[in-house]
Amino acid sequence: AQKVTQTQTSISVMEKTTVTMDCVYETQDSSYFLFWYKQTASGEIVFLIRQDSYKKENATVGHYSLNFQKPKSSIGLIITATQIEDSAVYFCAMREASSGSWQLIFGSGTQLTVMP
Amino acid sequence: DPKIIQKPKYLVAVTGSEKILICEQYLGHNAMYWYRQSAKKPLEFMFSYSYQKLMDNQTASSRFQPQSSKKNHLDLQITALKPDDSATYFCASSQDRVYAEQFFGPGTRLTVL
């Protein structure tokens, strides 16, 4: 069965620092796709970045990057030069390629607070 | 302009009633989805549609019925509402590819009294 786990409930950091949020996943599929989303205080859910399981290179988009450790079934999100507006809940999600299911399986989320 | 529209933004209903949640997307996507988020659980997948056909249903209850009148519409009808149905319902869409990221609408917050 597929499962996504985010153990960090909340993290607080100072503005302009770097933060890493953890995510581990379980899947029997050899091919899968991992995504990070953020949910703002207004409730809006925004897609940030993705990692395809067959790619060895870590994905990077703007000040977001991923630390993909396939042997550990881990996909960490790294935010560099954090800004106040990065304060949000961050969700990790997974979709299996061959299960036939179209669903994203989400973790429980990590609340990030960026302080001035 | 918003790319995914959900109506209404807030909805209050009484137990036993029926409501329809509206979703329209203007991203040119062929696949659409419904998810639910409640205080007790993380984002939970409900349905997926591709080219107006049901592809996946993870909702145990038949009280939840998706309806697709057009390729870019996917409404959600909920009958015999219960207080436990109180949640925010998000519509999402994506390209019709297994690797495609999904984009979410602003949500409809449903409260059942």
List the helices and strands and how they pair.
The complex is a heterodimer of chains A (116) and B (113).
Chain A: E1 3-5, E2 10-14, E3 19-21, E4 24-26, E5 32-39, E6 45-52, E7 60-61, E8 64-69, E9 74-79, E10 88-96, E11 105-106, E12 110-115
Parallel strand pairs in A: 2-12
Antiparallel strand pairs in A: 1-4, 3-9, 5-6, 5-10, 7-8, 8-9, 10-11, 10-12
Chain B: E1 4-7, E2 10-13, E3 19-25, E4 31-37, E5 44-50, E6 53-57, E7 64-67, E8 75-78, E9 87-94, E10 103-104, E11 108-112
Parallel strand pairs in B: 2-11
Antiparallel strand pairs in B: 1-3, 3-8, 4-5, 4-9, 5-6, 7-8, 9-10, 9-11
Question: What does it look like?
Answer:
- Chain A has 116 residues and is mostly beta strands.
- Chain A is 0% helix and 53% strand.
- Chain A contains no helices and twelve strands.
- Chain A has strands at 3-5, 10-14, 19-21, 24-26, 32-39, 45-52, 60-61, 64-69, 74-79, 88-96, 105-106, 110-115.
- The model of chain A has no long low-confidence stretch (mean pLDDT 95).
- Chain B has 113 residues and is mostly beta strands.
- In chain B, 0% of the residues lie in helices and 50% in strands.
- Chain B is built from no helices and eleven strands.
- Chain B has strands spanning 4-7, 10-13, 19-25, 31-37, 44-50, 53-57, 64-67, 75-78, 87-94, 103-104, 108-112.
- In chain B, strands 2, 4, 5, 6, 9, 10 and 11 form a seven-stranded mixed β-sheet that branches. A four-stranded antiparallel β-sheet of chain B has the order 1-3-8-7, with no helix packed on it.
- The mean pLDDT of chain B is 93.
- Classes of the chains: A mainly beta (116), B mainly beta (113).
